UniProtKB/TrEMBL annotation, chain A:
Basic and acidic residues bias: start-end ranges: 1-28
Pfam families attached to this UniProt entry: ABC_tran
Keyword presence, Calcium: no
Protein name: Aliphatic sulfonates import ATP-binding protein SsuB
Automatic annotation (TrEMBL), chain B:
Residues annotated as domain ABC transmembrane type-1: 59-243
Membrane topology: Multi-pass membrane protein
SUPFAM superfamilies linked: MetI-like
Protein name, entry field: Aliphatic sulfonates transport permease protein SsuC
Name of the coding gene: ssuC_2
Amino acid sequence: MLLDAIRPDADGADRAREAVPARPDSETARSQAAPRRGPARGVAVTVRDLRKAFDGHTVIDGLDLHIPAGQFTAVVGRSGCGKSTLLRLILGLETPTGGRIQLEEPAGVARRNVPPKRIMFQEPRLLPWARVVDNVAVGLTGLGSRRERRERALAALAEVGLADKAGQWPATLSGGQRQRVALARALVSGPGLLALDEPLGALDALTRIGMQGLIERIWQQQGFTALLVTHDVAEAVALADRILVVDEGRIALDVRVDVPRPRRRGDPDLAALEGRILENLLGESPAA
Amino acid sequence: MASTLLDDLGRRAAPWLLPVLALAGWQAAVSAGLVSNRFMPAPLDVARAGLAAASTGELWTNLGVSALRAIAGFAIGGGIGFALGLANGLSRLSERLTDTSVQMVRNVPHLSLIPLVILWFGIGEEAKLFLVALGVFFPIYANTLHGIRSVDPGLVEMGRVYGMSRAELFRRVVLPGALPSIFVGLRYGLGIMWLTLIVAETISASSGLGYMAMQAREFMLVDVVVLAILIYALLGKLADALTRRLERATLAWNPAYRTA
């Protein structure tokens, strides 16, 4: 759509995926999902023996992980298990103490066209002194002319259903609307990897469900790699192709969600899976 | 329609109700002979003195001289305070080098320097500029520094993630975030500017509003003394109104500053 025009060679993502150690089962999970309309431009992520310690306190402890391009992965775990740190490490917001993180951009893409990595934070983090459309345009910092940025920002706002709020101050929006503006800002540049750090945690239940649908739809259209950190297992089950349970800085459980999309709320398969993951989370520390 | 117009008029007039009542009461008290004219002239006498001073041009000359001193001193002291506040807010090294010294000097009441300043500069312009600049420096410095410190680190991180350069980060995130606090400093600075100037002019000057008031005291012209004091009040109000307008224009995004 608006972003595809600038990346005509995004099918390189598939080639990149073949180059990495295969995880055929997760591929089948994807092929069962609803067909992608947009071209894939996702970035594959490979993490080897990753370690991170803060002041001698180990948070990530020798973690291995491969996320194929375009996959929607959810990371769940008890608070303090290191799931947010993992996300920040992959995004480059923290420096690892040891190990390495490799992002494989779609092959054959010129350096300057490499799709960016974006993150959506727990809070919207909008600039209160910039109009909504200018906040979205922050996502295009350093790209194109002022007019181009504005046009693309307006298109991205329309995508999240806030076209009529373009000229308003963030202070006049509701919490859900602000988080939608933050989503538009994250997506306006056509990212290859979108990290979501509990972005819906502060929203009420109904707004949350609406946002989940919006994120899923845009992911299906744009084909970026999505990495969602959440404490809400139901949310992970509803959205993800694959769920990772992180415990004590390692991956304790790696489950594929083979339920076809669109997923129905209250689907018995999803409920069973949610139960299994919750059991795993609670079982590891009955006291908690 | 008419009622909203009346409402609007009422809202605009309300702040002036008290000053007008006070004036009327004052005039009545003097006219009735409750207060001696020698100590407290009636508002009408003050107005007459004002007209007289205005017609000879004496009032305008003194007002102009004082305003020039105020503006120049404010620009120098405020400019330095703002620059140092920015530097110390953005650079740890700069802060480590200067902040302790600034805090020490800040605790010296700047008006206590008047004898020293007279020894240094005599009663020339430099003395007044120095004192005003020194007085204005501290509130602007402290509030600029505080403003930059209190910018949400989450927003700064967001700006970095989205690839803003240092200059862009400053212009689009740090400075606007610090602005409300900088305005607080501006207001304090304006108050201190008048205070310092008037004290300095009263003690040592050969022109200006404070000088005019001191001259009038020599000749027992109470009405001119009161006139000078009223002009201070008006000038203070004017400076405040200007800041308010500036705040509304630049902080329109902030619900706390939005026009009702």
